[in-house]
Amino acid sequence: MPVKVNLRVLGEKDESEFLSGELPLEEFAGDLVDPLMRFGRPLEYELEASLQPDGVLLQGSLRTRLDCQCGRCLKAFKLPLEIEDFSALAPLSGEDAMVRDGDFGDLTPFLREDIYLALPTNPLCKPECRGLARKASTRDSRLEASEGEGPSPWAALDQLKL
Ligand SMILES: [Zn+2]
After folding, report:
1. Count of CB atoms within 10 A of residue 108's CB?
2. Beta-carbon neighbours within 5 Å of ion ligand 1
3. Count of domains in the chain?
């Protein structure tokens, strides 16, 4: 189900309409062609739609999740994608006008647009991820690792050598 608003009702009651629900993956996820990420769950939306002279103003929040692979170390991880201050104007006329079907205006493209703009350009498992090369060098610094607070796997290995 696309996200739609009844424009006639919106105009008649002269107050904003609250819309909430989930946009299924097939309605928005298909255009994400990236070897490092794909959408992992439907797009949850909570919106307030209000009629303005030039369109329908949408305000609220959008939430979904990305299933990513780290661009540096290739580890798989899940990344929540949230827009807490989503705001968009769905025009009633002009080139970017919302598609209408009778009384209903389709808001889906406006949600899609913002969620695509919020995608990370280079997904990382953590901001300080140093990638595969760093991981390999950490293994070599055994002393450094055993000085840490927790029990180190290297300590056990050293015991075996005795
Ligand atoms: Zn990483």
Report:
1. 19
2. 70, 72-73, 75, 125, 129
3. 2
Give yes or no: residues 63 and 108 share one domain: yes
pLDDT tens, residue by residue, 3-55: 999 999 998 987 899 999 999 999 999 999 999 999 999 999 999 999 999 99
Task: Determine phi and psi for 107, rounding to 5 degrees.
Answer: -95, -10
Q: Are residues 118 and 136 in the same domain?
A: no
Residue 100 CA, ligand 1 centroid: distance in Å: 44
Q: What is the pTM of this model?
A: 0.77
Distance 94 CA to ligand 1 centre (A): 44
Residue 131 exposed, middle or buried by CB count within 10 Å (0-12, 13-18, 19+):
middle
Cα of 59 from ligand 1 centre, angstroms:
34
Distance CA 65, CA 58 (A): 21
Task: Please classify residue 71 by burial: count the beta carbons closer than 10 Å to its beta carbon, then call 0-12 exposed, 13-18 middle and 19+ buried.
Answer: middle
Q: Do 113 and 162 share a domain, yes or no?
A: no
